[in-house]
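input
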Amino acid sequence: MLNQKLFWCVNMLEPLRLSELEEKVLQKFIRRNKQNLQNIKDNVLEILEEVRKNGDKALIKYTKIYDGVKLSPNKLKVSEDEILQAYREVPKSLIKAIKEASKNLKEIHEKQLPNEKILKKTEGVYVKEVFKPLESVGLYVPGGRVPYPSTVLMLGVPAKVAGVKKIVVCTPPGKDGKINPAILVASDMVGVDEIYRVGGVQAIGALAYGTRTIPKVDKIVGPGNIYVTTAKTAVYGEVGIDFPAGPTEIMVFADETAKPNLVVVDLLSQAEHDPLAVPILVTTSEELAFKVREKILTSFRRRLTKKTIKQSIKKHAAILIAKNEEEAINFINKFAPEHLEIMTKNPEKIIPLINNVGSISLGKYTPVAVVDYAVGISHVLPTGGAASFHSGLSVYDFLKVVHVQKLTKEGLQKMKNVVEVFSKIEGLDWHEKSVKERLKGR
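output
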């Protein structure tokens, strides 16, 4: 049996056979990046409560503690002058890319928009379904190591298409107290109403409870670190949230027809996002497994990879050999990856067999990078196994379903007995009376 601890060690990224993995090792894969939230929950709740009570004062306090930036209340909101200056600082190529990406996102999400539909139309009974946009949403855009203007688009365009009336952005400031100009330009081009230089737990608290400066919203969407994710979970009920969207994941399912170099560049492209990123190859080809391993280690020896990639590969990468397609697909569904690339002879035939996944990319010309930036679906997708119960972000996240019904006297008469029976069983007499009163002769 192969050493089951090897996948944690970058110097020996040894392919492992799925059939030989002990259950406890298998569960380490399935439960990747699962941390003990209790260790940070008390701290998160303390910050949220202080934001609820003290508003802007708490935002200023925690921005100084965690971002090293001292702000005054009138500096929480980004000014129009700052946005105009940002346009002068970003390259024209970025503005062009934002326009193109936004166009693709808008095209796809406009086609997603549901039409109202008649659900029932019989004698005396009429029911229809209509869709209403949320009044306001808060977009959380991470800061940290690099700016993410693309995330602004992936959150903001679906919200605009859905018809959300007020959209605000919260994003952490840099050490100089400024917001990266790329984020400001992307926000402005999408049509965001307000931008605030606040990040972390305190930003989630501000959007959930409202402060003198930052408005309370109906829903908070966007990815973040474990503190942001915990804060979003804690305020759920006060506001709506999307879903857990933590460190990125890629799973490549490949057979002997896949090109090793393409598998490698795609694994490393997601690893460069975050030291906690999860890049995994599942393959039915032992030859491919060892070629991919060797190419990754060669890139390390030649110092061709970033520190972030090395950390991700060392802690979270794996090369798994499946004895057949069925075993591979069974593992994929248990893992529920954020991104799945299928590089097999007939990738389309695999789609009906995959139930739990955020997004599927088919063939050698569809790297996850185009999903991240250009193809037109939102790259905000469920991670950490949440794809087993949640879809990726779309226009539906910004809509509410409302049912409208109308009955005639004849229609009410048909349903009278059902109401009477349930009213008696549940002890709700006035329910029955509300029907009988309408059916009286007068």
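quick obs: The domain at 38-241 is CATH 3.40.50.1980 (Rossmann fold).
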